[in-house]
């Protein structure tokens, strides 16, 4: 393209000049006072319809890598627990020869499970961070008016136009649309740290609230009549987790803030809190819709998990027989592998289906709330990376 040639009317240099600016903004309306724009789900499914190939490919990629890492970690856990399985098997054989009863001691297996559980949670957090980053980049590409699934994924989109210019000059920090591998790894680590910080910020109050509520219930329940005592044991844990639920709802958009605007973990938490609990341009609040959305996604995930686990239950006997015939005659190892197989299938399928949808909706909601906040905040530029201010502009893709 001739650099001296003036762009056509309505075109934005470096951002798909064939698409007029009006068309690029018309597909992505932001909330206004008249309430005529499409809702959150309409915009989300619009992005999904235009970017479904990229999202599907990246969802399979993330799920595949996470499944491979989980299988590797499971094999390592079985190897660490192998002495305990062997002791249990030898004890069972000895009891059988002596025609005596035998109760296996699985404390060693449970210890290995507790030691590897943080690694599984870390793996889940990395998978969620990767899915959040992919969805944020897909939303950014759609907002910038990129071609509708022209075969280029997020990496391809980031390497086009101004993204290549930034990669050559190195004058800006890699953003959502950048194709630099170092920038994407840094952004992935940023989103992962935000997930960890949000989990700790919600998990500690959740555990403390449960412990305090149960302690109060154990103190109050013995001194009240029986009907009231039962109600105390029911409602005390509920009241104990309410503050943690409110905190989790307020921090629900923090990973989207980190993936979209590159905010530091603490700043992403502040940004999410300010967006969720403030009033919108129409005078309403976001948290009721966000709570209903989180509840719906949670029910969808739980329902899909139960259905897939029930359907995958037939794999239990197959995995058990394969372990007995190919690996070892230890029935305890075979039973453990057979019990884990349906759960692994259910977790993989449900996460691969629901997490991209949830992250896509949250990324769209964050974009809409951010645009709404900037349109009603008045004049004066915000400070990037600080809560309550306008986020830094997303690099064009």
Outline the fold blueprint.
Elements: H1 21-26, H2 40-97, H3 107-143, H4 154-158, H5 162-169, H6 181-220, H7 226-250, H8 254-261, H9 265-277, H10 287-311, H11 315-326, H12 331-376
Helix pairs in contact: 2-3, 2-12, 3-6, 3-8, 3-12, 6-7, 6-8, 6-9, 8-9, 10-12, 11-12
Number of strands: 0
Tell me the β content: under 5%
Supply the number of helical segments. 12
Which series of helices and strands comes N to C? HHHHHHHHHHHH
Radius of gyration: 26 Å
Could you give the distance between the termini? 18 Å
Mean pLDDT level: 76
Poorly predicted regions are: 3-26, 29-35, 150-179, 375-397
Q: Helix content range of the residues, please?
A: over 70%
Descriptive account of the structure:
The protein has 12 helices and no strands. The protein has 397 residues and is mostly helical.
For this entry, give a set of tags.
397 residues; mainly alpha; 71% helix; disordered N terminus
Summarize the structure.
With 397 residues, the protein is an all-alpha fold.
């Amino acid at each position: 393209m001739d650099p001296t040639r003036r762009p056509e009317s309505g075109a934005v240099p470096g951002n798909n000049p064939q698409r007029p600016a009006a068309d690029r903004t018309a597909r992505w309306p932001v909330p206004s006072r008249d309430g005529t724009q499409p809702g959150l789900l309409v915009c989300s499914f619009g992005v999904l319809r235009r970017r479904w190939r990229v999202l599907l490919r990246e969802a399979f990629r993330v799920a595949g890598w996470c499944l491979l890492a989980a299988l590797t970690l499971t094999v390592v856990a079985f190897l660490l627990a192998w002495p305990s399985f062997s002791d249990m098997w030898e004890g069972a054989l000895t009891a059988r020869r002596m025609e005596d009863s035998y109760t296996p001691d699985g404390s060693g297996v449970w210890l290995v499970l507790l030691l590897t559980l943080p690694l599984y949670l870390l793996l889940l957090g990395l998978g969620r961070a990767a899915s959040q980053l992919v969805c944020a980049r897909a939303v950014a590409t759609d907002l910038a008016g990129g071609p509708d699934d022209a075969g280029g994924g997020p990496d391809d989109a980031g390497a086009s136009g101004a993204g290549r210019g930034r990669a050559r000059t190195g004058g800006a920090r890699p953003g959502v649309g950048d194709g630099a591998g170092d920038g994407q790894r840094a952004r992935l680590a940023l989103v992962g740290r935000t997930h960890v910080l949000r989990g700790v910020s919600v998990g500690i109050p959740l555990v403390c609230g449960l412990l305090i509520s149960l302690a109060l219930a154990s103190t109050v329940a013995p001194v009240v009549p029986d009907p009231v005592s039962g109600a105390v044991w029911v409602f005390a844990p509920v009241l104990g987790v309410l503050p943690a639920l409110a905190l989790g709802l307020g921090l629900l958009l923090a990973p989207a803030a980190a993936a979209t605007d590159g905010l530091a973990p603490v700043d992403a938490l502040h940004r999410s809190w300010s967006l969720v609990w403030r009033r919108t341009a129409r005078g309403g609040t976001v948290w009721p819709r966000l709570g209903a959305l989180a509840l719906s996604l949670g029910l969808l995930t739980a329902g899909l998990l139960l259905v897939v686990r029930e359907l995958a239950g037939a794999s239990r006997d197959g995995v058990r027989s394969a372990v007995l015939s190919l690996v070892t005659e230890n029935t305890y190892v075979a039973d453990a592998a057979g019990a884990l197989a349906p759960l692994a299938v259910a977790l993989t399928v449900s996460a691969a289906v629901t997490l991209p949808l949830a992250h896509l909706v949250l990324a769209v909601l964050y974009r809409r709330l951010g645009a709404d906040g900037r349109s009603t905040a008045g004049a004066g530029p915000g400070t990037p990376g600080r809560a309550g201010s306008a986020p830094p502009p997303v690099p064009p893709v």
